[in-house]
Amino acid sequence: MELSKYINLRNKNKRRYLLMASVDMKELQEGMKKLGEGVPSVMRDFQKLHHDAKANGALSTKEKELIALGIAVAVRCSYCILTHVNAALQAGATREEIMETLGVAILMGGGPAVTYATEAIKALEEAGK
Questions:
Q1: Is the pLDDT at 35 greater than 60, yes or no?
Q2: Shortest CA distance to 65 belongs to which of 79, 51, 54, 80?
Q3: Cα 65 from chain centroid?
Q4: CA angle 110, 116, 118 (to 5 degrees)
Q5: Cα–Cα distance measured from residue 34 to residue 30, given in angstroms and rounded to the nearest whole number
Q6: Cα–Cα distance for residue pair 18/117, rounded to 1 Å
Q7: What is the pLDDT of residues 100-125, one digit of tens each?
Q8: pLDDT, mean of residues 52-68
Q9: Cβ neighbours, 10 Å, residue 71
Q10: pLDDT at residue 21, as a whole number
Q11: Is residue 80 within 8 Å of residue 72, measured between CB atoms?
């Protein structure tokens, strides 16, 4: 590949990463509202699934949020990372528990999970923890 094309591709990917690193939850909520208008039964059922899956059972809500955070990092979902860091904190998770969760996510997700784990740390710090 020609060097200038490589540099342009690399800069394009870097810009994309920087955009993903600073997710806009308002933008996500607006998109989800549009989905709710377009496919109301799907989004209603998704919200029920989300609620039911997080409910206390054999695993606590806190444990489930930590699992969800680990999966979010491993599958590289920036919006999910921010959502589940905050939900885990609300459910009583500590910084140490979240950091250990990130360690397991890195184990399962490899190198790319390392970069997304940094987004979880940013969200944790923005939450004051």
A1: yes
A2: 54
A3: 11
A4: 115
A5: 6
A6: 14
A7: 999 999 998 888 888 888 888 988 99
A8: 97
A9: 17
A10: 43
A11: yes
DSSP codes, 13-57: HHHHHHHHHS--HHHHHHHHHHHHHHSHHHHHHHHHHHHHHHS-S
**Torsion (CA) 94, 81, 54, 32 in degrees, nearest 10:** 140
**DSSP one-letter string for 45-113:** HHHHHHHHHHS-SSS-HHHHHHHHHHHHHHHT-HHHHHHHHHHHHHTT--HHHHHHHHHHHHHHHHHHH
Backbone φ, ψ for residue 125 (5° rounding):
-70, -35
Tens of pLDDT, residue by residue over 36-58, are 999 999 999 999 999 999 999 99
Neighbours of 78 (CB within 10 A): 21
User: In angstroms, rounded to a whole number, what is the distance separating the alpha carbons of residues 34 and 6?
Assistant: 37
Q: In 3D, which of 67, 106, 60 has the Cα closest to residue 84?
A: 67
- Among 66, 73, 75, residue whose Cα is nearest residue 117: 73
Which residues touch 104 (CB under 8 Å, ≥6 apart)? 70
Determine the Cα–Cα distance for residues 129 and 125; give it in Å rounded to an integer: 5
